[in-house]
Write a structure and sequence with these properties.
Number of strands: 8
Largest sheet: 8 strands, antiparallel, barrel
Helix content: 10-25%
CATH topology: Lipocalin
Order of helices and strands: HEEEEEEEEH
CATH architecture: Beta Barrel
Mean pLDDT: 87
Shape: globular
CATH class: Mainly Beta
Oligomer: single chain
Number of helices: 2
Radius of gyration: 19 Å
Length: 154
């Protein structure tokens, strides 16, 4: 009986350590984010950011928040994105982690214009605010948006 209790305690301890270890390895940038339009401040969409098997950050549009945008397809988008539904679309890819909370060297698609830009992202120290910048050439020639963690913004 005593060995059974020790075995159960060891299993519980090991399960807790594995769960804690998985939480340590998840990048703080991962999760659901509300995109905020940089021109009018409105909430545009909910996106999901994940680090893929290659260690690169990618983003997918989970849902569009403005009723008139729901169900739209990307008419101006290039190649494989053309005429695809915006909801469910992977619109950000290839970002590599440069340091804690800093990601760069990726691409981001603007479904409104159909243009693909270079991209970088910077996570605030509170882990609840993300600055995403799309640019042409060098970062100086671009625009930034501030995204909010979905749990806090909705």
């Amino acid at each position: 009986m005593n060995s059974t209790i020790r075995l159960i305690r060891a299993f519980i301890l090991l399960s807790g350590l594995l769960s804690w270890s998985n939480q340590l390895h998840a990048a703080p940038i991962e999760g659901r984010w509300v995109t905020i339009d940089d021109s009018d401040g409105s909430k545009k969409s909910i996106v999901v950011l994940l680090v893929n098997d290659q260690g690169q950050l990618e983003g997918k549009i989970e849902s569009l928040l403005q009723p008139e945008s729901r169900g739209k397809v990307c008419k101006k988008c290039p190649g494989e994105f053309n005429n695809k539904p915006i909801e469910g679309m992977t619109f950000m890819w290839g970002l590599n982690q440069e340091g804690p909370g800093e990601w760069s060297e990726g691409k981001i698609l603007d479904p409104k214009s159909g243009k693909v830009y270079k991209a970088k992202a910077s996570l605030a120290e509170d882990n609840n605010t993300l600055t995403v910048r799309g640019f042409i050439g060098i970062s100086l020639f671009g625009r930034s948006q501030t995204w909010l963690r979905a749990d806090d913004a909705l």
